[in-house]
UniProtKB/TrEMBL annotation:
The active site is at S310 (nucleophile), D335 (charge relay system), H396 (charge relay system). Belongs to the serine esterase family. The lineage of its organism: Eukaryota, Fungi, Dikarya, Ascomycota, Pezizomycotina. This is Putative phospholipase. It catalyses: a 1-O-alkyl-2-acetyl-sn-glycero-3-phosphocholine + H2O = a 1-O-alkyl-sn-glycero-3-phosphocholine + acetate + H(+). GO terms for molecular function: 1-alkyl-2-acetylglycerophosphocholine esterase activity.
Length: 495
């Protein structure tokens, strides 16, 4: 299958490489690709990639891109400059995010949909080339062309700048979530998952971190500025501003600086939600949006959850302890990072940790212990009702958009066994169940089940194996539930 998708790309990249002696199969492939391109064109679907499906919750989904300068001016979170440009690299100037939110199902925006790969594509392409250590003037246009062919035409099926869902029917104010992406990602890598939650009545701020972890981003401090490009960073790209300083940016120091950067962005996102809810005018340096003034008083900023995937999950665990003054009520933590530094164990609110199957199955040493054991003990010791589960049949990228766009490629390279749509549906369902629990303490779905496996793939007992429904065992292993939390047992927390 991989060759099927690869050949046409090559043919597409080098259409001039014709020769008199070309083999008939080449001509056949070229014609087949031509026909396929014609088909895609006629059907308005993207070349080589599946379009993103529409959302399944009871509401429609709106989206707005916002970039806002930090309250109180930019903040330097670590002293480091880029070796070639001499510019500070850990200075947080603005917050960039896409907000997904519920709207009327029938509303159609006249504004064009947001693109899945933000423009310019060449910026993202160069970032990937650089991350693959292949960045030069020959590979750059090739990466751009491939990225353009694979996902250039994909758009996010949310209505841009739609009005927030009308009040009434219990929708007077919506719970809010701030979501942080993983390494080598951007704000558009989890659109399906986050928009599915929005279609179920949540306002989600999908941040884009400018800590050098993404393939490329643009910081705009004012609407008229052309913007500053943020390329991906490696520890070897940076140094202390004082060349004689002894301070070295090894991997740990680098990750700590990135985490501090992301923490400042978490704070900025929480500030933004409060400002919107208070009706404070928002200084937005991206395309103007008109919906925000009608959001005053419509966000339940008391029902604030922090969330993230991979490095973003590590960041969310950290932010749960640093944003205490804004009182987040819960966190959901997906595949907390293995290589993104230590996990902050000090959260005091309910958390839901979900591991993909590959994240639990692969035994990774993590500060002298298996990563799985660290996560299990961390969840057990949280002084609030919390869960730790593994989603069976999934892999690390299952919760991102990538498998939806390139399903065959992803299942081939990551070994997922669960259908991509079903995997995403399960993630949406368990997070929705968790939201339900946070709202009124009710335990439903998989969260109403007792533990099944304290170790990955080892049943707690034969009896539990017999009684646990087959259709759930195909999808989940439950490692920690509130009943298993040591501190809760000693001193139960009233909800
Ligand atoms: C906001 O969320 C909190 C916490 O879940 C809840 O107790 C409260 O009732 C909600 N407020 C509204 C207006 O929905
Ligand atoms: C967690 O709390 C302990 C005890 O207060 C403290 O020593 C530790 O530094 C904290 N960890 C983090 C990562 O903040
Ligand atoms: C976890 O909880 C289940 C049922 O709630 C119980 O059977 C099991 O013994 C508990 N395990 C630990 C380690 O507390």
């Amino acid at each position: 299958m991989y060759n099927d998708t690869k050949q046409p790309q090559n043919a597409f990249i080098a259409p001039t490489a014709h020769s008199r002696q070309r083999l008939p199969w080449r001509r056949i492939l070229l014609s087949a690709f031509g026909l396929y391109a014609l088909y895609c064109f006629a059907h308005g679907s993207p070349l080589l990639a599946s379009p993103l499906p529409s959302y399944t919750g009871p509401h429609g989904v709106g989206a707005i891109d916002l970039e806002v300068p930090l309250n109180g001016g930019s903040r330097r979170v670590a002293d480091a400059v880029h070796k070639t440009t001499g510019q500070p690299v850990f200075e947080v100037e603005t917050l960039l995010a896409t907000v997904y939110y519920p709207t009327d199902r029938d509303f159609r925006s006249h504004k064009p949909r947001y693109r899945w790969i933000p423009r310019p594509i060449s910026l993202t392409a160069q970032g990937y080339a650089r991350l693959a250590s292949l960045d030069n003037c020959i590979t750059r246009p090739i990466f751009t062309l491939v990225l353009w062919a694979v996902g250039g035409a994909v758009t996010i099926p949310a209505e841009v700048d739609a009005p927030l869902l009308r009040p009434g029917n219990g929708h007077d104010s919506f719970p809010v979530t701030v979501f942080s992406h993983g390494d080598v990602s951007s704000r558009t890598d989890y659109t399906q998952f986050l928009a599915e939650l929005a279609s179920r009545g949540h306002v989600i701020v999908a941040m884009e971190h400018r800590d050098g972890s993404g393939p490329g981003s643009i910081v705009k401090t004012s609407a008229s500025s052309p913007g500053r490009r943020v390329p991906p960073l490696r520890p070897s790209d940076i140094q202390h501003p004082d060349p004689d300083s002894e301070i070295e940016f090894d991997r740990d120091a680098f990750k700590r600086a990135q985490l501090a950067f992301r923490d400042a962005e978490f704070h900025a996102a929480v500030d933004l939600l409060h400002a919107i809810n208070n009706g404070t005018p928002i200084l937005n340096t991206r395309d103007p949006v008109s919906t925000l003034p009608s959001w005053t008083g419509r966000l339940n900023t008391t029902h604030l959850t922090l969330a993230g995937h991979s490095f973003g999950a590590t960041g969310a665990l950290q932010a749960l302890t640093t944003t205490l003054s804004s009182a987040p009520v819960a966190g959901w933590i997906l595949d907390p990072g293995k290589s993104s530094g230590p996990l902050n164990p000090n959260a005091t609110v309910p958390i839901l940790v979900v591991h993909s199957n590959s994240w639990s199955r692969t035994v990774s040493p993590f500060y002298q212990r298996p990563h799985f054991d660290t996560v299990r003990d961390l969840v057990s010791a949280i002084p609030a009702p919390s869960w730790f589960l593994t989603s069976i049949g999934t892999a690390h990228p299952s919760v991102t958009d990538a498998p939806l766009i390139e399903p065959l490629l992803l299942s081939w390279t990551t070994g997922t066994t669960l259908d991509v749509q079903e995997a995403l549906r399960e993630y949406v369902r368990v997070v929705d169940d968790f939201f339900h629990f946070v709202r009124d303490g009710g335990q439903r779905g998989i969260l109403s089940e007792k533990a099944t496996h304290h170790q990955y793939d080892e049943w707690v007992s034969e009896e539990r194996e017999r009684e646990f429904p087959r259709d759930l065992a195909r999808l989940w292993q439950i490692h920690v539930t509130p009943a298993n939390q040591t501190r809760l047992m000693e001193c139960p927390v009233e909800l």
